């Protein structure tokens, strides 16, 4: 009934210089492009114990003014051995002409978040991004999350992500900090 489909002519790229030319509006966030891997520590007042994890993050683009974002984490024990899969999320980071960000993220735990935020470059080769939820939407079985704020800081050493969360009756406070390096 249909002709055979052709190869996708608009592939995503994680690497500058490969694939489509990045859209000019992406300039402020281009240092994020690529695959990142790191370790983190987490806590929340409702949890008996703090926890450790590893995380992979990937940012790519298809030539339009947004990044595709995906992250997955797994808990590790004190020796770094894997314990079990943990948080996963995926979404889109749209960059506006005034270098503001509009971010949409979805979680397998029934949580969908929209964020607004901004990019700043405080030091040469550095990058700081802060995004805060505008809305959080929950499926019936999701845990109650009412807001989150994320801070991304990129310097010569790598990428640090700090994630604060208001959830399960608690005010906005620290849940996660991850330190990542670019994956070859
Ligand atoms: C690196 C990613 C993440 C890791 C490693 C992580 C890890 C954890 C762990 C270990 C717990 C304790 C419960 C359990 O053992 O499953 C937990 C609880 C929780 N997390 Fe996360 N999390 C991550 C991301 C997120 C995100 C993105 C959100 C919200 C959008 C979130 C919201 C929550 C909530 C609401 C709880 C339940 C607290 C409670 O019921 O007392 N987490 N997380």
From TrEMBL:
<keyword id="KW-0408">Iron</keyword>
<keyword id="KW-0479">Metal-binding</keyword>
<comment type="similarity">
    <text>Belongs to the nitrobindin family.</text>
</comment>
<dbReference type="Pfam" id="PF08768">
    <property type="entry name" value="THAP4_heme-bd"/>
</dbReference>
<dbReference type="InterPro" id="IPR045165">
    <property type="entry name" value="Nitrobindin"/>
</dbReference>
<dbReference type="InterPro" id="IPR012674">
    <property type="entry name" value="Calycin"/>
</dbReference>
<comment type="function">
    <text>Heme-binding protein able to scavenge peroxynitrite and to protect free L-tyrosine against peroxynitrite-mediated nitration, by acting as a peroxynitrite isomerase that converts peroxynitrite to nitrate. Therefore, this protein likely plays a role in peroxynitrite sensing and in the detoxification of reactive nitrogen and oxygen species (RNS and ROS, respectively). Is able to bind nitric oxide (NO) in vitro, but may act as a sensor of peroxynitrite levels in vivo.</text>
</comment>
<feature type="region of interest" description="Disordered">
    <location>
        <begin position="1"/>
        <end position="21"/>
    </location>
</feature>
<feature type="domain" description="THAP4-like heme-binding">
    <location>
        <begin position="26"/>
        <end position="182"/>
    </location>
</feature>
<feature type="short sequence motif" description="GXWXGXG">
    <location>
        <begin position="34"/>
        <end position="40"/>
    </location>
</feature>
<dbReference type="InterPro" id="IPR022939">
    <property type="entry name" value="Nb(III)_bact/plant"/>
</dbReference>
<keyword id="KW-0413">Isomerase</keyword>
<comment type="pathway">
    <text>Nitrogen metabolism.</text>
</comment>
<protein>
    <recommendedName>
        <fullName>Peroxynitrite isomerase</fullName>
        <ecNumber>5.99.-.-</ecNumber>
    </recommendedName>
</protein>
<keyword id="KW-0349">Heme</keyword>
<feature type="binding site">
    <location>
        <position position="46"/>
    </location>
    <ligand>
        <name>heme b</name>
    </ligand>
</feature>
<dbReference type="InterPro" id="IPR014878">
    <property type="entry name" value="THAP4-like_heme-bd"/>
</dbReference>
<feature type="binding site">
    <location>
        <position position="143"/>
    </location>
    <ligand>
        <name>heme b</name>
    </ligand>
</feature>
<feature type="binding site" description="axial binding residue">
    <location>
        <position position="175"/>
    </location>
    <ligand>
        <name>heme b</name>
    </ligand>
</feature>
């Amino acid at each position: 009934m249909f002709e055979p489909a052709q190869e996708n002519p608009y592939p995503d790229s994680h690497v500058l210089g490969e694939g489509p030319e990045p859209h000019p509006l992406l300039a402020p966030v281009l240092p994020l492009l690529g695959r990142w891997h790191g370790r983190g520590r987490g806590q929340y007042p409702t949890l008996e114990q703090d926890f450790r994890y590893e995380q992979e993050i990937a940012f790519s683009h298809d030539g339009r003014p947004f990044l595709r974002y995906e992250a997955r984490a797994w808990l590790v024990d004190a020796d770094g051995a894997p314990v079990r899969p943990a948080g996963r999320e995926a979404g889109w980071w749209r960059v506006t002409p005034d270098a503001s960000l509009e971010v949409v993220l979805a979680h397998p735990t029934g949580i969908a978040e929209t964020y607004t935020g901004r990019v700043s470059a405080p030091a040469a080769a550095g990058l700081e991004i802060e995004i805060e939820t505008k809305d959080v939407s929950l499926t019936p079985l999701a845990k109650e999350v009412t807001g989150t704020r994320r801070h991304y800081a990129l310097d010569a050493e790598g990428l640090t992500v700090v994630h604060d969360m208001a959830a399960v009756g608690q005010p906005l406070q620290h849940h996660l900090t991850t330190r990542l390096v670019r994956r070859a």
